[in-house]
Design a protein that fits this description.
By secondary structure, the chain is α/β, with parallel strands linked by helices. It has one domain: TIM Barrel, CATH 3.20.20.60. It is built from 11 helices and 8 strands. Helix 4 packs parallel to helix 5. The structure holds 3-methyl-2-oxobutanoic acid (KIV) and sodium ion. Sodium ion binds next to loops.
Length: 265
Amino acid sequence: TRAVTTYRLAEMKARGEKISMLTAYDYTMAGIMDAAGIDVILVGDSAANVIAGYKTTVPMTLNDMIYHGKAVARAVERALVVVDLPFGSYQGNSKEALNSAIRIMKETEADAVKLEGGAEIIDSVQRILCAGIPVMGHLGLTPQSINKYGTYAVRAKEAAEAEKLYSDALLLAETGCFGIVLEKIPAALAGRVAAAVKIPIIGIGAGGQVDGQVLVSYDMLGINNGFSPRFLRRYLNLHEQITAAVEQYREDVKSGDFPNGSEQY
Ligand code: KIV
Ligand code: NA
């Protein structure tokens, strides 16, 4: 196992040390993030949007996730590697869910899987846990259910939905999940959940009263410049820098400036 384990993450929460998590989809980027000291690397099904060019995460397959999972896991020495189970690979059939999780664990060198949902998928969560596979939950905005909700707006603003999310979080924690991602919900609700459970709560658009933060790497690096939710902090503007580099290269090729005398054999 790698240095960051699910046990280490629980210790970090107990000590009040915040947990840093980012998504990665390929070997090179995952290696950079691991060497930079990120605690958890998520092979997110957001690969659908930023890598594959799908409008939603719904089309991602288990084979797609295994391809990305393998590439990331080959690079990571220290961080905990979590792979998303994609839409259709775990809902409504706990035996199929277990088979999906087993494929991820056998075919990639991941440490854990992540599933979206609460009470609806608890049989699947339980069965995967029974096989000794660590499970991370994901509540609030759950992109695999986009066709049910029809919007990526903030979730759980109304009392009924907030109470359902709170009880789902307690259920996932009791069942044995090692952590839960809360996506795009009011900060106060996320804080209430984090205070109620011993397992780490990792937020994205869920405020600062939680145990750690996750962002989609393509968003925080500014590669993706068409997506600007309030919760996104951009640390680079790679879209601009890559554009400038590509334009310069094109000009250098056209003008004959590249390659120069020392750039050839
Ligand atoms: O797929 C993903 O990138 C995620 C994070 C937003 C938590 O699930
Ligand atoms: Na995801």
